[in-house]
Amino acid sequence: MSFRDLSIARAMEFAVHEINNRTDLLPGITLGYQIHDSCGAVSMAVKVAFQFANGMEPFYNDTDSCSKSAAAAVPALVGESTSTPSISMARILGLFGIPQVSHFASCACLSDKRQYPAFLRTVPSDHHQAAALAKIVKHFGWTWIGAVRSDSDYGNYGMASFLKAAQEEGICVEYSESYYRTQPRSKLERVANVIRRSTARVIVAFVQSGDMRLLLQELAKQPPPPLQWIGSEAWIIQSEFLTYNMCAGAIGFSVANSVIPGFREFLLDLSPAQALKSPLLTEFWESSFSCSLIGSSGGARKCDGSEDIRALQNPYTDTSQLGESNLVYKATYAIAHAIHGVICNDTQCDKSAKFTPWQV
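Given the sequence above, the corresponding structure tokens read:
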């Protein structure tokens, strides 16, 4: 489990609690929510998309008649975090007119309303980031560079935009390599060797964090001469990369940092009893404290209540960088305001109002 991603997901939960306690937004209406872990897999994201569109029952109804209405199970959803799963979900949800608001799927391809009519986002398109990265390279006078990207929609579309912008800026690219973390190890080794043998000492990396981690681990086996990394937002601000010496001096753009009043206290207001109510929070608690909430299992001791969440120092409790969490927070509020616009006037909401997700 990614503790950082759990913290980001709980920003939606926090926003829902805030909205439900407000009198000026959806007065008298209580929003509900479900949080699902896609595990970064397209197959899981597609499964959840179908569930949201058709209902959450885990079984197939094989009766002759359909007793349920054709209405979607949810009026809107927030997610996914990355571009490729978001694209797969958007193709399905668009058919049902269910609005999908992503907080971090930045592929420029998702701006195509003909293909993704119900997709919206609170993060800018990578079209802008790619142009800005080319401007950085030109600003420092680096005219001979290498390029590495994730072999995914995020990396391929992002790098294509960057290479176009770099050409317009008069920047020469010695090589452009791609790989993905599930590809054979030999592909990663080949990319690392290209970097080691190249004459370019400046590298633009339009890479997802998991792929970047593997690349740096591979390069560390036979470190190349000092490199100047130019990073995309997916990895450039993540603190784990500070442990790699070859990343010293890396620069790039990030989502603007934000402050969400009350969010840190919300994250830390978690007891063992509350954690037990959610499989995700149960896993977080047991992983953080190396104990079992249900009972001794797998050699782990039973949690005894002495665990102090405020003493933890991990990505879940680190609220110094809330840029991505704020995008989730804003996405949730955008959906709430849209629903308010459909079923409410200035001071009252019609609890019995029927509406379709497409209206939202």
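Residues 21 and 27 are 9 Å apart (CA to CA). Try to locate this feature in the token string yourself.
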